[in-house]
Queue: 2 jobs
Job 1
Amino acid sequence: MIVAERKPLNEIKSFVENYKKILIVGCGTCATVCLAGGETEVKVVASGLRIGFLKEDKEIEILEDCATRQCEPEFVTEIVERVKKEEVEAVLSLGCGVGVNFMADKLETIPVFPGVNTEFFGAAVEPGVWVEMCAGCGNCILHLTGGICPIARCSKSILNGPCGGSKDGKCEISPDVDCGWNLIVERMKKMGTLQRLEEILPPRDWSTSHHGGPRRVIREEIVSLSQEGKEPTETKEAAKEKESGR
Amino acid sequence: MPEPSIAESSYAPCITACPVHTDTRELAELVTQGEYEKALELLLEANPFSSVCGRICHHPCEENCRRAKVDAPVGLMKLKRFIIEATRDYRISLMEKMLPLPNRKEKVAVIGSGPSGLTAAYDLAKMGFQVVVFERSKTPGGLLGNAIPRYRLPYAVVKEDIDNILSIGVELITEKTIGRDYTIDDLIKQGFRSVLLATGLSESSTLNIPGIDSKGIFLALPFLKTVLSSRPPVMGKRVVVIGGGNVAIDVARSARRLGAEKVNMVCLESRDEMPAWKWEVEEAREEAISIMNSWGPKAVFSENDEVKGLELKKCVSVFDPNGRFNPQFDDSDTATVLADNVIIAIGQRGDLTCVRGSNVKINPGDTLECDPKTLSTSTKGIFTCGELLTGPASSVEAVRDGHRAAKAIAHYLETGDLLMQPLIELPALEELPDETAEKIKKLTPITIELLPAETRLKEFTEIERGFTEKEALEEARRCLACTTGALADEEKCAACLTCVRICPFDVATVEKTAVMPEEKCQACGLCAAECPAAAIALKRFGTNQMKEQLQGLLASIKDKMVTRPLIISYCCLFEVTSRKFISEKSESYKKSGIYRIMIPCIARLSVPDILSPFELGADGLTIIGCSEGSCLYPTAEERLLRRIRQAKSVLEEVGVEGERIDYWKTEGSAEVSWTSFWEISRRKLHQIKRIGSKHP
């Protein structure tokens, strides 16, 4: 899951305070699960902003909405339509950065502001505590490291660890941070596969990660189907237009 | 029969067990809200004999209360009595409000003014029919008016129900006996389009044993009727009552009150088989009445024709393998019991002289030929209800069949056809699982001590008082609010597991989405308050209702000059010991800037709930919870405190003082401590500037 955390309200307030009508949009998926931007948090942010503006005697209309996922066109279209129909001046997204981007792409001239800081891909290790576990580097090597990711969980993302900064299982950057390589070694020891670590991992090709520029995944079968589905509709509409006067 | 106000997939067992499906769960909730009038309306909708049933009902609602598994059932019957007693004036105005009724010309005659006949008359009158009730006694009410001893049921109580029924225009003609003074045919000739036979089982059965004609022997119903008269019978020192049912108990206890020193009940049944309600048996024992179980009468022995005692034979079994009454005796095992009087209370039968001269058919066993589904006799337009239809039954069952009879007759008059009305069994909520019951906080039931036996025996005054308001409110709180629990909206649920993690009763699970099994959920509302997707709602707790109330409150003052600081106070409804405090004082507090919103458990407040008063223009929020240790739900207070902290930090983030939110625990009761909490909050807020100037 993508883990995010709500930005402080005074920061959020500074984004939107010069508009007359804003829409706060939550996201019903990751942002809800990590308690940062679901429908309840939308209410909290809306309420907080209203109180803040009330204090400053500012009259700003705050609308509330929540998309099932802000990263799907079908769900976002509904929001985009609402923004246009109700003449919303600015959107505050409580979805992850993907949601902000995606809505910004669709909304052309309307500003979309981030209401949360998107943190990482992580897991809830206990209720209310999320830990980063994947860096989305595009070339998974978890089969070599006992299922524990050195890219995400080692502070230096080194491929052949641990480094000299590992002490009593903790990373030198903070006693609160587990040494990722220590976790790898301990787990592989338990699995009886520790000897595999004697093989030195060669330098990696980082072009699969962000270093190769923005990435995309294409599933041919779905792409072609939906495009096939679209064409006849467009043709029909074009035909209608022709009939009706041209 | 009126259906419960809400259509559900399953109902609280108190509702399903009640023959008239009184929405008892809702009643308990209305009592906690101080809404006694609404509760009365709900009661009367189901049962026009609510005063009576608040006293003598066999209360299957309590017998089926799911709280029994935790500690003891909720005292639902006494809550009903409380509602009745708290709303006497309103009840009269309610009846007046019902008028004028629709006017339909068809006349209906109801024979018998017991609970069944009068319920039917009441329903038919409400529908606009012209109803005349004929009663052979001087006193209406059937056995309620003419048999049940006053220590159990004061006549004023019966009269209260009957007066209400008559007040909407039901005509009552007393001291007219059908079959003697008039016949069914006479009624038809007089223009009655339908006749309802509701004469009940009005005749006591007798015994056919040697010596039964001796002096000093009474039959139960005539005996009880005389007891109620101005000249009650004189009892000898030793009285034997034959029978083990509720009437026998009434007879025995009446005999004790009339001076009999030694009362023995003789019955065929073993203690466990006795048909009398167990609490009645217990109260009889307290009054020093002995019960000789598993004995049958063999002969009466007398001297100079005066009864002197009873010879008994051992009863070895009462019922045959098919459960039919078929007593077997061991004639070699005998006993004697001395008696100056013997009262026979072995059952009642219907008096079928009512159909004499008509073509209404009678079954070989001397019962009325009738269809239990249509309530019709063999003659078109002649219906029956009550014990004549069902055999021995309770008052509330009589009321049920009165409702059915009214529907049957109305349908017949409208269509000329019979209406099929099989008895409806509503689906009941499953039993409370053990593992859930263990987690529910035990609350001692409010018990009302009966008068001490020696006081009781001096006279026929009522032996049990009703709840005080404080007691009623406390007892109503014990209701588990079955079927009102959490419901997750599948569309919104993100399966985040928050509900699973915080549920103090381990009820919530996530399958594809969150599920809170109804038979386990305790409706604490913690999951609803914490759900990040706002996907969970309690079926009965109106979060929206609360918000509307808040918005209504604040909107109402928008254009007016308002006392500042303006404080909204969310208060735990359960800590109030009188509704006077909820309603009457409310206005004076408003004048001083305190606007209260009473909530059944403030642990249900979400962060947005805590923030919303401020966005609506309040200067402060005072949350008052229950007193130390009295919260019903584990972890609830801790969760609420965290939410309050979160709300405070939201305020701080936008530059508003978090100290505008106060949290208090009730000390003593609402009446004792809340005013001072508000005073402290107010004083503090005087030091803090208003949040905005444009809003009131």
Job 2
Amino acid sequence: MTSRRRTTIVATACLLASTAMSAMLLHNIDRLRPHAAIEDVLYVDSPKVLKRASLGFDGLMACIYWTRTVQYFGHRHFEHSESYNELAPLLEITTALDPKLYPPYQFGASFLAPAPPNGAGQPDRAIQLMNFGIAHNPDNWQMYQNLGFIYYTELRNYQKASEAFERGSRIPGAHPFMKIMAAQMAEHGGDYTTARMLWTATYDASHDSDIRRNALEHLRAIAVDETVISLQNAVTRFGERTGRLPSGMDELASAEHFPGIPTDPDGNPYQLTARGLVVLARPDDFPFVTKGLPPGYKPSALPKFHVKD
Amino acid sequence: MAAIEILALEKTYMVGFWRKRPKRALHPLNLTVEDGEIFGFLGPNGAGKTTTLKILMGLVFPTAGSARILGRDWSDPEVKAQIGFLPEQPYFYDYLTAHELLDYYGQLSGVPAKERKRRVEEMLSRVGLQDVKGVQLRKFSKGMLQRVGIAQSILHDPKLVFLDEPMSGLDPLGRRDVRDLIEQLKQEGKTVFFSTHILSDAESLCDRVAIIHKGELRGVGAVEDLTSAVQGKIEVIWQGTQIPSSMKALGAECYVSGETVRAALPENQQDAAIDALRRERIRLIAITPLRTSLETYFVEKLQHSQTTAGKTS
Amino acid sequence: MNSRIAHIATNTFREAVRDRVLYNLIAFALLLSAAAILIGQISIDVERLVVVNLGLTAVSLFGVVIAIFIGIGLVSKEIEKRTLYTVLSRPVRRWEFIVGKFFGLAGTLVVNTFFMGIGVFGALLYVAHRFHASDALILVALYFIVLEFFIICSLSLLFSSFSTPMLSAVFAFSLFVIGSFADDLRGFAAISHGLTHWVATAVAYLVPNFSALNVISAVAHQQALSPQLILQNTLYAAFYTVMALSGAVLIFERRNLK
């Protein structure tokens, strides 16, 4: 074998082995540095400083920070984390670098306001962020939608929510539904119909999978809540008619002439407790429900993003 | 044992924007260089001389064929310890001094430390650079660089030395020094392979020559044989511009140049010519055998290849 | 064989040291360390922070510039100017040449970093008036910077083995910039789909991971660094360097030197 061939073989072997080892080590190092993406934010949370450090490549840096934000959120989600302290600074930095980048605002609306483990639990900062977005994007009616969304879902301030939708509806090109939502919130703030309209609009308006999943979960919860209320009313009617509680859901179903045993959106039948309460078979599958929870049920601390495919 | 054996060595480059057009730099070349001889590799510029040398040095890889140097394959790294190379228009690390450069090259050639010290000094004085050994090479003239080049090629006492245009850039004194050096190398028993396009150098130094043109070998042979007196003629040179009629009668071709006349005659007329001049009281300057110069042979070979140029690419 | 590599390395080191570009760059970097003191004094309480941040960034950036320009100069220039012909006509293997060049260049940068590091520590002493235990972390940051340099050197050699000096410099510098955002590249690969995902992942893993080696912010804020991280980074840098050098050897072995 010529020395040249020997060198080629050794060099090729080294190349392949070291490439594999590098990739593997890289993977390991990644795991050792969970805060990598947000290091800057931990140490320098002033958007102004970062803007200056970007040397004019603001647009690019905004994209990079946006990518980091999404990864950050997904990462912590995956680890069932309890807090999202860095979410607000990340979003603030991203929007400071590029105020016209829309997705961060939408993301902030969905996840800055709700309490942990579903979000950062900082509705004030969320409102601040939306106002910043409105100031820099006065022609974007969707900003108002996001603002109204926060007031409605987290702060339960139907008045302010309605105002936001109203202002947004006045922008040329706004979706007609803005006006409808304004009216709806003013008059029927606490209604399930209103909530359903809003969550459906949120689901439709976004391409982000996190936001859509969140909206979907809320819609499922609304469906369950409404069904449980109507089933509970049926139990009451049964009780008034027969003077006793139904022995089970099947008895109730036949008495009320239901097409079949009522099931939740996942297909599991609702259950009737001994005390006559309508409950879900698997309450953990339905974060955000307020009705149909068994007595003494403690929701798990897991972030509630479960959607069965 | 032959010092160099080249067998069907070929090199084709791919040229053009997409590298699809083949360009033949070297047609299958067969050549043998014997031990202890000075071999001249001649040809016009672009003939393929440097390509051949680079292949032998392992700087360029042949498309086909093989070569053996000192009995080993050209790609054998150990063979390099016994050969020296002077490239055309050499360029060296200009931040080093001549002394440092030779020392470095000695290290790379595997010369042991003690001997290296001695040899470096020896080489520097042999090429006449001992006075400037501490000067950085960036300050050297072309001629001085050439000398350094020669020094590094023989520093490690190689058996075979390759020189590419060793006389280039040298003044007449330098050229004479190099010529003397090459002859010394031969006397030391080394084989010298040098390529040049200056024929007079080759004629005076080489034992054998090869002529290459457009990548093809045109002729090989001992200098003597190639330029031997083919026609058995002599040349007579005499003073003055007079051409005696008796000379003409002998069939001399005369040519007046300045204050002398040169005449070519058949060899057997030598005595008659001398008598003719004496009778006319013309002063004889010289009588020499008339040889075909290497130049004539060279040009003839090239012209022959031009006429067959249609066939060669 | 080993002695030839050592000789080539020594010669490379000597060449780098005698190259005047080197001195200009070092002087500039030291100047920047001095400037850090000035800037630090403008905003009180953060002097130390500014000195460490700016000082280490200067060491890193200038070192990269030196690594790229001298590294490429050493090999590409040599190939272009044909100094290589007389070297390779000796019993030097082509791979020994590459490896020797690498060690010479790496050695130059280690020495270089050493002197610039002294500059940083000097500036630090000036503003803080004494050293703290946590200042040892700066040594770790410098060590990581040296690892970065090794990677850059090997990449410079890789590109020089087949490309012109200008292009090699551009490639090497681009990889430095991209490598500094390697985390983001992997993040982007993680959230993309289909073909983009695979291509981005492949690129993200091949690009040198400088973001992991850049601990300047952490050190400035006196954050501890795990020994695991130090070990893994060292191994990563070693393997990556071997990878790039193997590539360089494979290419260079085959190259026709015109």
